[in-house]
């Protein structure tokens, strides 16, 4: 047998052997190989949105033009009992976006609060008129405080899913906007107490208004986040700011406890209880254009947090 014939015979025998050992239907030969679909990647960002209520007491001084009032008004004793509901109002929301160790922090606070009589005392008028004026004096402050900061986790102990403690450093700015007003009965006492006519008569009241005042404070701070148990978190933070760029000096301290109570549609719901204190010492202008705000606001906070 010639070499080509031998080669053809061997090739035919090999094909027949393969077909007998591993028979494959023709339809399967034409079918493409199955592919595994890659799972969708989840976003590395985690978001927290926390609307909350702040119930602050006020302690300090508010100066409008040449008139300074001393305010020592407790939330439940002096502010809640105000007869005009619009003078006790607030809207607050905190926000956090976190990607591993990096986070963006934000907070928006709007407050309209007022104190009167026992909670407010006039400091500037002549001593003979002080008692009569103090008994009829009202003071209110409308303000917006907006914060924005970048944070970085510098150290972490423990596991995120269990007991853990983390420390963040952060820096940013705090924008203040205020409009203050002091008013008192337009009686004969006014001529003695305020001869400079910086009060405006409105009906039966004498009113001094600050106009709109705003400034920005740079700030730096530290935050400690602790997971006490799965679903239970404690956060304590503090910052200082102003540095004579905006206010002379400002500081803030917040402590908050959160507990998870529900999960739905990828959102984790938590309750929040805590305490917030915010202080600023700011002044601008002089004489009839002077405005000063040297005030500590402090009180409990209650909120609802959505994490997604």
How would you summarize this macromolecular structure in one to three sentences?
The protein has 308 residues and is mainly beta. The protein contains five helices and 15 strands. It has helices at residues 3-21, 26-30, 75-79, 127-134, 189-193, and strands at residues 46-54, 57-64, 67-73, 88-99, 102-116, 120-122, 138-158, 164-185, 200-202, 205-209, 213-229, 232-241, 249-264, 267-284, 291-307.
Q: Can you give a write-up of this model?
A:
The protein has 308 residues and is mainly beta. Strands 1-4-5-7-8-11-12-13-14-15 form a ten-stranded antiparallel beta barrel. It is built from five helices and 15 strands. The protein has helices at residues 3-21, 26-30, 75-79, 127-134, 189-193, and strands at 46-54, 57-64, 67-73, 88-99, 102-116, 120-122, 138-158, 164-185, 200-202, 205-209, 213-229, 232-241, 249-264, 267-284, 291-307. The chain is elongated, with a radius of gyration of 34 Å. The model is unreliable at 26-30 and 124-132 (pLDDT under 50).
Structural class: mainly beta
Q: Give the overall shape, derived from the CA principal axes.
A: elongated
Helix-strand sequence: HHEEEHEEEHEEHEEEEEEE
Strand order of the largest sheet: 1-4-5-7-8-11-12-13-14-15
Q: Strand tally, please?
A: 15
